[in-house]
Amino acid sequence: MSVSLAKEVVYLNVYETSLGYGGPEEGSWYFDCGEWITSMYTTRPTAEKYQQEWREGEYRTRRSVSSVIHKPGDSFDVVIETTPPQDYPLETPRYE
After folding, report:
1. Band of the pLDDT at 27, cuts 50, 70, 90?
2. In what order do the strands lie in the sheet with 76-81?
3. Which of helix, strand or coil describes residue 77?
4. Please, which residues have CB within 8 angstroms of residue 4's CB and are 6 or more apart in sequence?
5. Is 65 exposed, middle or buried (0-12, 13-18, 19+ CB in 10 A)?
6. Distant-in-sequence, close-in-space partners of 20: CB < 8 Å, separation ≥ 6
7. What integer is the mean pLDDT of 46-72?
8. pTM for the complete prediction?
9. How many CB atoms lie within 10 A of CB 39?
């Protein structure tokens, strides 16, 4: 028995994004980080509606994380996920 997408329950998760310093290799490298801010547990249609509203409102990205004038609170990622929120990455990436 399949669940219709209209009744599928999902998480609308908001993360504040930043760059983590990976190391000095190849002239320095960085990786994407996300710190969980808030969530909504709801149906997919409702999540899609709020996703757009949040991206254009309180959680709109003001500056890219790669901008030299980026500061905390400038960039966010508002995503629909089927799993509970958690900061990312779980482990610091390794240079290879």
Report:
1. confident
2. 29-43, 9-23, 76-81
3. strand
4. none
5. middle
6. 30, 31, 32, 33, 89, 92
7. 92
8. 0.84
9. 14
